[in-house]
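New to this. Please check this record:
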Amino acid sequence: MSSQQYSPGLENVIAATSSICTLDLERHVIVLRGYNLVELATKTTYEDVAYLTLYGHLPNRREYMEFTSRLREYRDIPKEVVEILEKMSRDSHPLLMMKAAVATLAAYDPELEDNSLEANFRKAERIIAKLATVTAAAYNIPNGRGYIRPKNDLPHTSNLFYMITGREPNDLEARIFEQSFTMYIEHELAVSTFAARVVASSMTDMYGAVISALAALKGPLHGRANEMAAKMIIEISSPENAEKYIQRILDRRERVMGFGHRVYRRGIDPRAEKCREMLKELSDAKGSNYYEIVERVVEIMQAKKNLYPNVDFYIGPLYHLLGIPIELYTPIFAASRIAGWTAHIAEQQANNRLFRPRARYEGPRDLKFIPLDERE
């Protein structure tokens, strides 16, 4: 083992083969089933991209209509899931509540133990539909708003927006929310996706693998950067305050959330530029100075650290302008990425090999055992 290469965090290690997604760093493109993800997000619906992510091809009209119909049929969640959320502490993080909800949903899926590809696709559709409802409920219930039932006459993302805000989005809000939401749908082997594949490789049920992805997403190094970016922009409050604010963070040797990326390094997140454009459009429409603040922070970070913003830096203030509570930014990430997670789980189990890496041992050897009574 001592002669084998060690890569902390498995950086640049090829851990799986997949036909779902890759990050083309030379061309600055996220390739989803052969298509440019950003182009898909700006030209079609979330449902269309979710079908592509799961099944590997864009649906024809019949497939699309049947798929969207099934998602609408599956949206509601059992009353037992609602009751579980009602019994949880009101201080629980929404992601913790979502894990509990997914665990409870597992008990109501008749195909729970069937890991065939066909059954996994059917389960994936049910989870994609229900996780959006769970996302809204994980905020509404502890905040005294009760369980807001989904509206089956609304598209997937507009329905999620309605359940979260209590109102249907206008045309601008609906378009921007759907496009930004769709850009989160898949991103190769991010830690939550890798966690899902590792757990799925034991041939456990899909719900258990999704719970592991939600647990990974709760960590601030993965999913919560958009929350922190929004809070930062709110606290800066004007472009004139940006440099002192950022310098204080750097002086404390802390990270400015929303900048840099393990894979992109000093390159550009392909999703960031489009989200920048959307933030400009929404800021102008709402009479906000968020776009000016964001632009100033980007200038400062490029001058001081030569770092580029990632998608989370723009999504945070974008969601805030849409009236979405900050606590829900990362759960919304999950509600989008669930299509990618379930696609990876199905792919893993269709051609499975149990993940079993080795560790480079750096501890002692050949210690002599001392009986308990003789130990000081």
Notes: The mean pLDDT is 94. Residues 117-140 form the longest helix (24 residues). The chain has two domains: 14-219+326-350, 225-321.
